[in-house]
Amino acid sequence: LNDLISQEIGSMKDGEVRRSFLLGPQGKLGYILWVVQDGDRVGLITDSGRGEELAATLGRYRIRVDVEIAPESEPVWLVMGEWDGIDVSWDGVPRTLVVGDRPDLPDGSSGEHEDVRIRAGEPRWGAEVGEDSIVHETNLVPLSVDFTKGCFLGQELVARMDSRGGTAPQSVRWIDLENDATAGSDLFVD
Questions:
Q1: Does residue 52 or residue 66 have the better pLDDT?
Q2: Rounded to two decimals, what is the model's pTM?
Q3: I need a labelling partner for 108 at 20 to 30 A (CA). Which of 50, 98, 119, 148 fits?
């Protein structure tokens, strides 16, 4: 796994969490990940609904390695705020992933979550990024790529852009408005 993803995970301690990417061979974005070290298990957290696809993708790279790859079978809950679980906070936005029983908290709406995500500048698969995106479009490279670890899948494009000082357009941008708007609102200029 350490040779496939963009983050160094060999030195992770139990309970530690790091950001990472799994890229395609040409350096295109495959998955935005949170990596969790849990004893002799490593958990990979990706966008909702993509766990089985991620497990199948990793299974294609499993060659002569005694490892089991499977999506989590227990329910997984995202708590906006601090809670007992896995810290998957965005910049300035505390978030906790809870596996197992549902936390005794009120439900938030997907629109509220989307508003917070956009304000945090966090890209979402299928909205701002997709299979034709490169990692530099995510604004997550400083958190998700270890340039000293050695090779990883698709690293040539990432390293070339970094070494040459290349930039890429980023789809998550701030727009200052006189009045508040919610995700999905139509915005008109003049």
A1: 52
A2: 0.85
A3: 50
